[in-house]
Amino acid sequence: MTGARTPATRVGFIGLGSQGAPMARRIAEEAFPLTLWARRRTAADAFTDTAATVATTPAALGGASDIVCLCVVADTDVEDVLLRPDGVLTGMAPGGVVVIHSTVHPDTCRRVADEAAKREIAVVDAPVSGGGGAAAQRRLLVMAGGQEADVARCRPVFDTFADPVIHLGPLGSGQLAKLLNNFVFTAQAGLALDTFALADGLGMDRGAVAQVLAHGTGGSRAAAILAASGFNTAGLRRALPLLRKDVNLLLDVADTARAPRPPALTDLTAHTLSKLGEFPAP
Q1: Which domains occur in the chain, in start order?
Q2: Is residue 281 a contact partner of residue 237, using CB atoms and an 8 Å limit?
Q3: Confidence of residue 282 (pLDDT cuts 50, 70, 90)
Q4: CB 31, CB 58: distance < 8 Å
């Protein structure tokens, strides 16, 4: 671990899906006092073999936590669990830190941070990449934005499930990095689909082509993921709503900043989203 371990730090976790649950389990396994809350109470049933406790409301979780981690799906979910009448900020004491692991608009992080600051609570944006398996193996990528002292305070928690943890700058920087990463991945996914389709048309063996790409200069992470799935597109199709959300968020951020849209990447992402939408639902 890279941070100074503080076993007494109390951690709250909301968002026990396929990504969040392995992260929360690693926190529990490292003996941080952990409190959970979930809209569906059954989502916390998998933690009955740990010392984690389950709060009745987000406010109760906030009151039991020094650091609260959110791994919910959308901007509206982040704002709901934090800002509603029984939300996390209502119960959390001054000096706490809220960590947004969700992939959301940087403006959402800043809007939430303005409300949190009224209660002397800090906010760190720390979206992740790698999937639940990487979290379980303590090799998730964390892209953090926020004040240096706030990120440093959270590092011992991040270190339970992540390596590397990259601090990119002020609040919102982590979201920018994650959105850019997902934008490029979406473009590469379409390239990978077209590459293997071309290989089929040329009468080539897909598996052999995948090995060439893995060791050659034409490979990509998207091509490797597709090959590892046995060229099954079900995972990409399930991810289509999230890929579309993140592409639109990145384009909105770019337009707001008056940064020119990169033509090739923009066209490729549109091609990927269209191509995935042509497949039957998994």
Answers
A1: 11-170 (3.40.50.720), 176-278 (1.10.1040)
A2: yes
A3: low
A4: no
